[in-house]
Design brief:
Elements: H1 2-6, H2 15-41, H3 43-49, H4 57-64, E1 82-86, E2 90-97, E3 103-117, H5 124-128, H6 130-142, H7 151-170, E4 175-185
Antiparallel strand pairs: 1-3, 2-3, 3-4
Helix pairs in contact: 2-3, 6-7
Function: Controls the rotational direction of flagella during chemotaxis.
Protein name: Flagellar protein FliL
Family: Belongs to the FliL family.
Amino acid sequence: MAASSANQAPKAPSKGGRLLRVFALLLACGLALAGGLVVSIGPQRALSLLPLGDAEAAPEEATADAGPEAAPSADTPAKDNVVVTPFQEIIVNITATTATGRQTSRFLKLNIALAYDATLPGADNIETRKLFLRDSFQEYLRQLNETDLQGSIGLVRLKAELLRRARAISESDAPQQFLIADLIIQ
């Protein structure tokens, strides 16, 4: 009797067990996809994609359907209120790595301008704190490596960091974006 049970092959999983494994795999993939979406676009935008039917969504939809004469949303300032203020040319040293792995110094030349909404509270702080903004930008730029500025993602990160610093120093959400006229690494 013991010899006959040793010769038997292990039982294949039942159909219900296979369905449970497939469902668990699909659930894990769906959760990973949702997590990636939240990380890439942020939690607020991810929640705005869900049709929750809350009361806040109805007024936004009403203004969006009202046509071109509708008031601009909080995210996009009206074009008449946008002020562009240029900064003096910034030249700093950044580090770079040669092909042999040696650390070297490079020059970064940057000409930028800040576009901000003059109607938002705290917008007057931008012009009065312009020297503090420039100092903060130089402090950040000196910490960069040459690889930090490579490709389009490098420009996006640079603009985002400069915008974050501009909003912090001006204590306002008035700064909207940075315009880069020149970015030269030599």
